[in-house]
Amino acid sequence: MPETAAAAKPARVNLRTPDVMAAVQAQVETHYRSEVVEKLRLSGGTLTYDGVTVRLAKQFGFCYGVERAIDLAYAAAKVFTNRRLFILGEIIHNPEVNEQIAALGIKNLLGQDKEAEVRDLTAEDVVIVPAFGTDVATLGRIKERGCQIVDTTCGDVMSVWKRVRQNASDDLTSIIHGKASHEETKATASRAVVEGRGNYLIVLTLAETDYVCEYIRRGGDRQAFLDKFRGAYSEGFDPERHLRRVGVANQTTMMRGETEEVQRRIAAAVRDRDGTERARETFRFFDTICGATQERQDALKEMLAAPMDLLLVIGGYNSSNTSHLAEMGEAKLPTYFIRNASRLESPERIVHYDQHARHEVTTEGWLPARPLIVGLTAGASCPNNLIEETILRLYALHGVSAERLVGAPAR
């Protein structure tokens, strides 16, 4: 079938029937459930045994959006048994979960260049859109092939899309606080331009925000601006014209405080240029930080107020919400961002992710002597079984077996 040929719209299929979801839940529990974590949660999040105390943040791990995405992927594998199944990249940012998805027979549709390879898709194929969503162009190409689409996009992400589409309809430029290379931000940016209206500019840091604010207030070198933000703005973007009316949006997994500061600084710049009354028409802001992201940040902030010797943060290294938890910990105490329990190699040696170097590093002498208090949290894409394995490994490094630990009372 030629790539430009439009196929008939596929029939709607309900994946969430009671029998399918019952089977899905049983399978998901087998893969990701943890008795140790459930025990810890019910007992207030603290376990002390043999001189080692583990404190688990009150909010951690899988959020509703992640659980829904995984459930729908598992359901698709059960319902579409005689059809090819594909997914647009990763279902979530966790390597172990993505390996489980691949084991279900769901193939990654993205090539090495991160572009969707849709040429060979047919109307008989099933394509899963991950929790981050996908960009408008890619989705359109898949629809042209007539594929059955299973959309697991998180509701919080779609709320941001609604806001930037409104900005575009009102001919405002969306300034998006996020990572330009992140799938969610790419998907959001694609919806900030609607039928030739609207533009977008992506900023990551407060330093970049200040650069934009200076341009809003005083103008500047147009080409220097475009060179600085190359790859992070819409086609035809002109800072002279497209910073006249702006609306701030965000990648849902950013730090709330930082997004609010981005918003505050841009609002102040617009007021300085236009005056307070005029700024009501030329600046717009909506709070679109993911609730689960904020809950995990708030829970960690609370836990960091208590004395601890170190913090372990568990999750995928490309997980935005997990990386921000690690940033919070690093500002307070020794913090190790690990993919899983295997990175706790010995009491002397830990392998962890350095966000500044963007690769794993090794730290020697990381584990203090007992008595010891270890804080533990995990991003919204981290399953409970990986948290359990980390807890068991931590105690194993002190000679406490899993059998002894499971029988120990949490407190």
Describe the structure.
- With 411 residues, the protein is of the alpha/beta class.
- It is 42% helix and 17% strand.
- The chain has helices at residues 18-32, 35-42, 64-79, 95-103, 136-144, 155-169, 183-190, 206-218, 222-228, 239-242, 256-274, 276-282, 291-304, 320-330, 384-396, 402-406; strands spanning 46-49, 52-56, 85-87, 106-108, 126-129, 148-151, 173-177, 199-203, 246-250, 283-285, 310-314, 335-338, 349-354, 359-364, 372-378.
- Strands 1-2-15-11-12 form a 5-stranded mixed β-sheet, with helices on both faces.
- The longest helix is centred in the middle third of the chain and has 19 residues, at 256-274.
- The termini are far apart.
In short:
The protein has about 400 residues and is an alpha/beta fold. It has helices at about 20-30, 35-40, 65-80, 95-105, 135-145, 155-170, 185-190, 205-220, 220-230, 240, 255-275, 275-280, 290-305, 320-330, 385-395, 400-405; strands at about 45-50, 50-55, 85, 105-110, 125-130, 150, 175, 200-205, 245-250, 285, 310-315, 335-340, 350-355, 360-365, 370-380.
In terms of per-residue confidence, which ranges show pLDDT below 50 for 5 or more consecutive residues? 1-5
Widest sheet, order of strands: 1-2-15-11-12
Number of domains: 3
Give the integer mean of the pLDDT values: 93
- At the fold tier of CATH, the topology name of the largest domain is Cobalt-precorrin-4 Transmethylase, domain 1
Q: Features of this protein?
A:
411 residues; alpha/beta; Cobalt-precorrin-4 Transmethylase, domain 1; Rossmann fold; five-stranded mixed beta sheet; four-stranded parallel beta sheet; 15 strands; 17% strand; disordered N terminus
